[in-house]
Amino acid sequence: MATLLDIKNLHAQINGKEILKGINLTIQEGEVHAVMGPNGAGKSTLSAVLSGNPNYEVTEGSITFMGQNFLELSPEERSWAGLFLSFQYPIEIPGVTIANFMKTAINEHRKAKGLEPLKAAEYLKMMREKMALVEMDPAFASRGVNVGFSGGEKKRNEIFQMAMLAPKLAILDETDSGLDVDALRIVASGVNKLKSSETSTIVITHYQRLLDYIVPDFIHVLYKGRIIKSAGKELALEVEERGYDWLIRNEI
What is the pTM of this model? Predict the structure, then answer.
C-alpha cells in the first residue's frame, strides 16, 4: 500500500488561539480512520485545515498528500488532487440546481487534469448511476442545492457528491449528526459502496454508532489538539462504554 496522507507535528490556530498542538497521522491507501473526541478537541479544525480553510493558520508541521506539499495548494487544488470534505452542516445554494452544480464541479476537475468536459449524455448517465447508489430520488437533480432538504437528505446529497467526484481521500465531518437510523444506514451504505483499495476515508464523529456501519481500521482519540490514543476498532466500543474520561485522566 502507498502512503496517501502524512501529517507531521501539525500545529494550527484561529484568531491567535492555538487549536491543533502537534498532530501526527499517516493514512495508507484503502484505510478507514475514525477520529473521535469530546467537543472542542479539534476534530473539525483538523478537517478544516486539511481542506485549506483560510480562517485557520498552520504555524508548524507539514501535510503531505500523495507526495505533494498540501500547504502550498489552494482549497480548489486540494480538491482537484483528490480530497473531498463532507460538511457537518451543508449549506444551501438557492438558484443553483444539483445537476448544474455537480456538472460544473466535475468539469473543473477534468479541466485540472487536462481532460475534455463530459458530454451531456455521459454526465446524465453518471448522475443517475450515482444517485441510485445513495438511494436518492432523481427528481432532486433539478432542485436547488440543499434548499428545503431535511438533515438526512443533505447528508445523502453530500455522499452523492462524493460518489460523483470519486476522491482519493474523503473526510466525513460528523456525517451522522442529526440523522435518524434509516438515514444513517443509507448514508453509511453509500460510503461503504465507494470504498476501494486505492481510496481512504477519515470519519470524524462523537459517537460509536456510526462506526457500527462504517467499520474503521484505526481509531484516534483527539483531546486538546493532540491525538492521545490510537488503536483498532475495539477502541470505539471502549469509549462508548467508559466515555473519554478514562483516557483524559491520563493526560492531566
Answer: 0.91
